[in-house]
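Hi Q.,

Before the meeting this afternoon, I wanted you to have the cobalt (II) ion prediction in hand. No need to reply - just skim if you have a minute. The sequence and ligand are here:
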Amino acid sequence: MQLLNGLSPQQFLAEYWQKKPLLIRQAIPGFTGLLSPNDLAGLACEDDVQARLISLKKKQWAVRHGPFDEADFARLPKQDWTLLVQGVNHYVPEATGLMAMFNFIPHARLDDLMVSYAPKGGGVGPHLDSYDVFLLQGLGRRNWKISAQTDHTLIEGAPLKILQHFETEQEWVLEAGDMLYLPPQIAHWGIADSDDCMTYSIGFRAPAAQELGQEFLGYMQEQLRLSGMYTDPDLALQVHPAEISMNMINKVSTMLRQIQWNEGHIADFLGRYLSEPKPHIVFEPNRKINQEKFTALLQERTLHLDLKSQMLFWQQRFYLNGELLGEKEDALQPNTHRALETLADSRELQTGSLKNEEIAVLAQWLYPAYLAGFVEFAA
Ligand code: SIN
Ligand code: CO
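Predicted structure with the ligand bound:
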């Protein structure tokens, strides 16, 4: 695979993923980016887009959050700043093809596509990320320095996490189409080596144990259906009426041991949690049509996931943007199951080879998602 320096995805996963950096010259030959500097600035002016302007003035770092307007950009100095825009894959249709090149990593691990713009010399400073990232160079050139240093001391009081010391271990200049893979916790420092330097960060997420635990307990709370009530026909006279007795502790402990989970609960939790859109994301509901009309359209047209949608599955259960499709008890036949797998894997679905009854079943499963704006028909 050219994208991986001639390595197969299996070799990349075994040797590099979460283990060590990999520089890939001409990972995507001819790649110069998906959007122009002006397009990126335009995105940073939209209300629902997460954008940051980072600047360094007299050795002081400053961060401003979007949305920005034209005047913000007009006021910027010639040098020493960078614009970062998150979730570009949610707004730019061409990003779907780029993200699909990284399908050798499960969608459940995918975070988003961030794009940066900087004039020569600009960057976000030396730092660490807790996530895996592929840094793909678009327009211009960027100098990357990396280090596996164990000194993670941060500059105190800075508005973003910048390392106090940085010891360069390896250094390269990346040109359009070159890519650097970094596992978590590798210190890195990217400095624009030309004007109009645009870097595409295909980022992955890894939830912290604490976050998973809290979210899972929240999920379990909603699932909880415990039976019975505390009873104590064996109550013995206590010396201290205010004391919580061992007898009470044992009884409650037995009651709480009813709270149990299996892999079905974990999968159901992960399907919902990992496909849940970030809080700032909003979907535009589609114009209301009836289910019959939706079924007819499904027969004729290609259906695709909205750019902001995330779809995952486990066995017979399909999750779209935090919600379960169909009913828990519903079972799919092999053809309809395969069709939904295709929609989840490739973000689009053509029903050409399916029977009318099968399309009707799919329509039943997908109609609410269509109304919510989670899926769309290709023009
Ligand atoms: C950038 O594109 O300037 C920053 C990417 C990163 O260091 O994670
Ligand atoms: Co970084």
